[in-house]
Design a protein that fits this description.
Largest sheet: 6 strands, antiparallel
Number of strands: 24
Organism: Microlunatus aurantiacus
Protein name: FAD-containing oxidoreductase
Bound molecules: flavin-adenine dinucleotide, nicotinamide-adenine-dinucleotide
CATH topology of the largest domain: FAD/NAD(P)-binding domain
Radius of gyration: 24 Å
Cofactor: FAD
Helix content: 25-40%
Oligomer: single chain
Shape: globular
Keywords: FAD, Flavoprotein
Family: Belongs to the class-I pyridine nucleotide-disulfide oxidoreductase family.
Number of domains: 3
Structural class: alpha/beta
Distance between the termini: 65 Å
Length: 452
């Protein structure tokens, strides 16, 4: 049995930084990765999807070019070339990460699926990889998650895709049927429609389920306006046809006949892959229960990233590693800002309307449709809205919802203000640059109205 000072399981968004820091600190460290370094984000999540999105945005803009007095001729999409561009870029990034990890002194990187037998006393946790068992007093988990595939009658008998297989396609699907109208379903659905595929999203009880109804309406208008079909129903039964598949629906409406089926109905933690004897306490959703500095129920085991349920994004997982490495910071007071990368994107932080109404506070609202934002008018990108909610008594900023041009960046101004504890008058009185989307944050905060 080999002894390590520390073992990091999972080379996703938090693991590599933690492993390198521990090794740099003179601790003999093992980093275990069962697939490829870079985890979900680099290999089949944020990075490849946003690289592919770039092609979809260009195709869309090229089709609209004549609106701007630019003539391109017929626009066609070479999907194999677009996906090859993604793979080339991702391969380079992965190699860069791999090379960096290989160069860290005192760090052993091994390939394989780790199982963990936790020591309740916290002295000798046992990690087994490829038949070899290692012992350590410190384990850092960064094991993330994978697509949760729902039990749909007939699904096992048809070829269905998660984001992993979808990104390996080399031909454009004729008709992509997407189960789930969340982040993955909407981002991919819009992209593939822009590439020229027919797209049907089976959105269950509705797209973007956690967002306010007017945001859902605006997003629906954008997507259906581009020809994406959205149906608020669930698949009941799936079967093969001669050239694809047929999906019968739970509301008994007309079945969908498509060529490919993407399942995007949420994530499942990878904790099960650690075996049955890890001994970690989990919550009702299957995430590892943690304290303010990622400490688990087992002394000497910490859980970072998606697996701890305190975030479901790359930036939250990466920030976990930064917090861990800079005590006494804690994860408790994190303000989570996030974006859905539809085009236009949706930027979010804090409360939406529903939560604000339920908060019992005297909430004031600042709002403007993107069609009134001069930069959006100038760029011909007027879909969406900007909304900021504040507490009328304490002057705290409670949240922001921005759907529209550059919303993924602009919303971070509000995220930062909330994190810094800046009241809304300071943002209202700041000097903005004209003409930018962000200039409307100060101006709308000058005309607050009570939330109805
Ligand atoms: C299609 C898609 C698009 C996304 N887009 C975005 C986006 O635009 N922005 C954003 O912020 N987030 C996005 N996300 C979410 C983001 O990818 C995750 O939140 C992030 O990767 C979580 O990081 P992590 O380190 O917790 O886990 P992961 O990145 O999943 O890394 C976990 C690693 O652990 C390894 N592992 C697991 N179990 C074991 C074991 N027993 N032994 C050895 N290794 C193991 C896995 O192979 C993996 O490499 C997207 C996700 C998907 C699926
Ligand atoms: N831009 C980003 O940051 C980004 C992009 C992609 C993914 N992600 C991360 O990945 C996670 C997973 O994304 P996702 O889209 O799979 O999950 P999600 O939770 O965002 O959405 C899944 C949707 O599927 C619905 N659903 C569940 N079962 C269904 C069924 N049988 N039929 C129809 N609909 C069903 C759910 O009600 C939900 O609305 C996200 O929560 C997010 O954390 C982030």
């Amino acid at each position: 049995m080999t002894e390590y000072d520390a073992i990091v399981i999972g080379a996703g968004q938090a693991g590599p930084g933690v492993a390198a820091a521990l090794a740099g600190d003179g601790q003999r460290t093992l980093l275990v990765e069962m697939e490829q370094v870079g985890g979900t984000c680099l290999n089949h999540g944020c990075r490849p999807t946003k690289a592919l999105r770039a092609s979809a945005v260009i195709a869309h803009q090229a089709r609209r070019a004549s609106e701007y007095g630019v003539h391109t001729g017929e626009v066609t999409v070479d999907f194999p070339a677009a996906i090859q561009r993604v793979h080339t870029m991702i391969d380079g990034m992965r190699q860069g990460l791999r090379d960096w990890l290989d160069g860290v002194d005192g760090l052993d990187l091994v390939s394989g699926t780790a199982t963990l037998v936790g020591d309740p006393a916290g002295r000798a946790h046992q990690v087994t990889v490829g038949g070899q068992t290692h012992s350590t007093g410190k384990v850092y988990l960064d094991v993330g998650g994978r697509a949760a595939v729902p039990g749909i009658d007939g699904l096992d008998a048809v070829d269905h895709l998660t984001e992993v297989e979808l990104l390996q396609l080399t031909e454009l699907p004729r008709h992509l049927v997407v189960v789930g109208g969340g982040y993955i379903g909407l981002e991919f659905g819009q992209m593939f429609r822009r590439f020229g595929a027919e797209v049907t999203i089976l959105a269950g009880s509705g797209i973007a389920g956690r967002e306010d109804p007017d945001v859902v309406d605006a997003l629906t208008e954008v997507l259906t306006g581009e020809g994406v079909s959205i149906r608020n129903t669930r698949p009941q039964r799936v079967s093969r046809t001669d050239d694809g598949l047929r999906v019968e629906l739970s509301d008994g409406s007309e079945p969908v006949v498509g060529s490919h089926l993407l399942v995007a109905t949420g994530r499942h933690s990878n904790l099960d892959l650690l075996g049955a004897d890890h001994g970690l306490e989990t919550d009702e959703r299957g995430f590892v229960t943690i304290g303010p500095r990622f400490e688990t129920s087992l002394p000497g085991v910490w859980a970072l990233g998606d697996v701890n349920g305190h975030g479901a994004f790359t930036h939250t997982a990466y920030q976990d590693s930064q917090i861990l490495l800079s005590p006494p910071r804690t994860v408790t007071d994190r303000v989570t800002t996030y974006a859905m990368f539809t085009d236009p994107p949706l930027g979010r932080v804090g409360m939406g309307l529903t939560e604000a109404r339920a908060s019992g506070r005297r909430v004031l609202k600042a709002e403007v449709p993107m069609s009134s934002v001069s930069r959006a008018q100038l760029e011909g990108e007027t879909a969406g809205l900007m909304r900021v909610l504040v507490d009328g008594d304490t002057e705290e900023i409670l949240g922001a919802t921005i759907l529209g041009l550059q919303a993924d960046d602009v919303v971070q101004i509000i995220g930062l203000a909330i994190q810094a504890g800046i009241g809304y008058p300071t943002v209202r009185d700041a000097l903005p640059i004209h003409p930018t989307v962000a200039e409307f944050l100060p101006s709308i905060l000058g005309s607050l109205t009570p939330l109805d």
